[in-house]
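Action item from last meeting closed. Structure (548 res):
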């Protein structure tokens, strides 16, 4: 499961790449290795409440608006806290805000912050800290990949596009502990949205004194259940319980140690040897381990997919894109390669989102992509004729380093060779290099993942509007942009979903991407560990976790 999370979502890869969303990462380091190891041993013997997890790779950033992926935000979600926090039943509950009032028209939210909400350095968490952080999220000079998540706020999109000012934002610190937020339109999922790490506060005084406060453990200031006590970059990082956290009495873990291992089999070996308390299930051991007592299964709103760069040959041609998509059998991938009981994806929005009439979005919009090798061969032929190709330009399929990603890429390359008579070159790079190349449109054909950042289908689909930092395909469609804008400003839920249904169909009509499977969370967890909450939409919670 953690290996897959490293891919994002919401993307996320991404949107989470956020692809969160979701695509992003995290990291840490120490100065005296011997002393560190000694401290860890004494900690383990003095208290069993030390949890050992794998982050997969170095976090992209622990700066809330920048670390827009699961390898950053999964950990950050436990170092910091927003106005709300998703509870054990995955619903938004009071976080730094102990209460809130919503105006009758649904446009104004007034949050009252807890009097005992403090930063780890003892400073009070203030409404101005939220105004400062959210303004940074939206500031075009900051270039946050998560900025679009804030577009529901009045004046946010114009400010982020360089057409407005910070003074026009619907953000007001009425006093030290009162924050007023004005929205563009009624947004029923707003309390869920602000639990997302993009909306975490930042200690204004600390950040103004040291803009790199988030880059090292000794300068990091948190307001959540844990503090960042050590960070050996590209190696590991460590959390300790935060005594300044307003709800510290309900946090049982004393420490959390995070490794950075991106090889699935190595992670499993560390789990077997007791070096980790959770692990992904290697595909070659899936049959025996999925039935073990240690296995867990949790829903996950997200999609594993591939992006075409429509600005690079040959994928400027729609028929060639469709040929490369239709020849791939998603059922074979989940049955014989990933083997984690995933659902093959025939659309981009995952199951689990219900429209105004009680229908599941995925079921209602149906299968938008079908496996059809014969049609794929004809599409490739027609596309090559349209472009005047006697021979297809070289195709390079790129993925970030991971056993799981490599296995899928190798299968796809084999299918392209056998079914389309196309030789595809495989290329893998480490996460941060891969991500930057994808964002810069340097990759021709690349893997991605999206993990939902908030519980609404628009979060999936907004990633592909023109110029979105999550688009990463070069694709632009005026009708699509209009449909997403209409959906974001429509108060009538039935009409809003109609816009979203149509938008997804437009996306698949031109196919700048194609999906492989919807995510779930499958893995192994030691029986002595309990209370880890894995949200279907959101990030892992350790606040209620314990280890006996």
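Sequence:
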């Amino acid at each position: 499961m953690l290996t897959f999370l490293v891919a994002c979502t919401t993307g996320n890869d991404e949107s989470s790449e956020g692809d969160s969303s979701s695509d992003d990462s995290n990291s840490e380091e120490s100065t005296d290795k011997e002393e560190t190891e000694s401290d860890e041993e004494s900690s383990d013997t003095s208290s069993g409440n030390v949890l050992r997890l794998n982050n997969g790779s170095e976090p992209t950033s622990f700066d809330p608006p920048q670390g827009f992926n699961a390898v950053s935000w999964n950990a950050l979600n436990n170092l910091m806290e927003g106005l709300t926090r998703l509870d054990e039943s995955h619903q938004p509950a009071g976080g730094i805000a102990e209460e809130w009032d919503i105006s009758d028209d649904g446009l104004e939210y007034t949050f009252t912050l807890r009097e005992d909400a403090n930063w780890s350095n003892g400073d009070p968490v203030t409404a101005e800290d939220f105004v400062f952080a959210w303004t940074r999220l939206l500031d075009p000079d900051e270039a946050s990949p998560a900025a679009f998540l804030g577009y529901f706020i009045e004046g946010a999109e114009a400010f982020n596009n360089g057409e407005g000012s910070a003074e026009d934002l619907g953000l007001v610190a009425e006093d030290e502990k009162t924050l007023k937020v004005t929205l563009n339109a009624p947004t029923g999922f707003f309390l869920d949205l602000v639990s997302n790490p993009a909306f975490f506060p930042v200690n204004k005084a600390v950040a103004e004194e040291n803009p790199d406060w988030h880059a090292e453990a000794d300068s990091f200031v948190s307001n959540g259940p844990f503090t960042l006590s050590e960070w050996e970059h590209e190696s590991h990082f460590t959390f300790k319980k935060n005594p300044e956290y307003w709800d510290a009495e309900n946090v049982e873990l004393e420490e959390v140690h995070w490794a950075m291992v991106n090889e699935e089999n190595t992670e499993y070996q560390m789990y077997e040897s007791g070096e980790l308390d959770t692990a992904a299930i290697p595909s070659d051991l899936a049959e025996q381990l999925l039935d073990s007592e240690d296995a867990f299964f949790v829903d996950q709103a997200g999609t594993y997919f591939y992006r075409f760069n429509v600005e690079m040959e040959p994928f400027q041609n729609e028929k060639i894109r469709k040929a490369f998509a239709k020849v791939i059998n998603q059922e074979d991938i989940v049955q014989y390669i990933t083997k984690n009981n995933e659902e093959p994806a025939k659309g981009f929005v995952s199951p689990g989102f219900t429209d105004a009439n009680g229908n599941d979005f995925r079921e209602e919009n149906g299968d938008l992509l079908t496996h059809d090798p014969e049609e794929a061969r004809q599409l490739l032929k027609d596309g090559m004729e349209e472009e005047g190709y006697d021979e297809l330009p070289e195709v390079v399929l790129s993925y970030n380093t991971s056993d799981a990603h490599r296995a899928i890429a190798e299968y796809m390359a084999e299918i392209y060779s056998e079914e389309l008579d196309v030789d595809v070159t495989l290329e893998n790079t480490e996460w941060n290099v891969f991500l930057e190349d994808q964002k810069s449109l340097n990759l021709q054909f690349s893997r991605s993942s999206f993990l939902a950042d908030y519980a609404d289908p628009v979060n999936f689909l907004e990633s592909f509007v023109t110029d979105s930092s999550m688009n990463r395909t070069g694709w632009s469609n005026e009708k699509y942009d209009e449909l997403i804008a209409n959906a974001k400003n429509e108060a009538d839920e039935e009409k809003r979903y109609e816009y979203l249904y149509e938008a997804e169909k437009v996306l698949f009509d031109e196919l700048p991407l194609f999906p492989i499977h919807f995510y779930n969370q499958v893995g192994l967890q030691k029986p002595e560990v309990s209370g880890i909450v894995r949200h279907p939409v959101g990030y892992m919670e350790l606040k209620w976790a314990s280890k006996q």
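Note appended to the action item: Residues 1-47 have pLDDT under 50 and may be disordered.
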